Amino acid sequence: MTCSVIVMSHGLVAPAFAQVQIAPAATEQALLPGLLETTLNDFRRLPSKDTLTWLLIGGAAASIGQTQDWDITTGFSKTSGRMGSMLKPGETIGGARLQIGTALATYAVGRITDKPRVTSLGVDLIRSQIVAQTLTAGIKLAVRRNRPDGGEFSFPSGHTSVTFATATVLQRHLGWKVGIPSYALASYVAASRVHKKRHFASDVAFGAAIGIVAGRTVTVGRGTTKFAVSPTVTPRAAGVSFTLLDTK
Q: Which of 193, 195, 210, 218 is the 20 to 30 A CA-CA neighbour of 116?
């Protein structure tokens, strides 16, 4: 089965493929007290071919045609008021508080109901948020790019990175039936940040790559997922299409 999710960007990249071998979801009950050690191991696993592939894709999408950032952001922000109303919830959905809160709630439900798979999902969601937010904050402080609205720390988009991290974990645990809507919601959040002039298109493109890296890093060992990454073009901007080819 083939499904696609579009991440708004101004740059085009050549088609690329990434495949990860992972095992069935763990049935043992994950324990939150070991989160620190486990998360440290996540950061140790970050330097990998898979991480490099996704960061290169995100970097290419963010850098090629960067001079078009203002045109894309300005044009997209001038869309109808109805579009603005539709995208407004993206700020809340992609907020760190809601994302972390949802992850903690998932873990709590798993523990309370004695559902090891739900607990495991909750732990992976928490870990992905820690990795995504740490990477995002570090890059923001290093780059210090101004936002389209004049604020600070535009690159990369934190809302985009955390929502793509969540989407990736959900896809790895629950398959494409949950993953594809989750990626669509993450793309919606990314679009809302550009529309509100809180981020440039390149900010959300690289933020998406960071989120995917975070989600994939904490779920090493689950299922077999193959993605095709290819350029796409819309009337207002160019983009990157992440296409799910097959999931077992």
A: 210
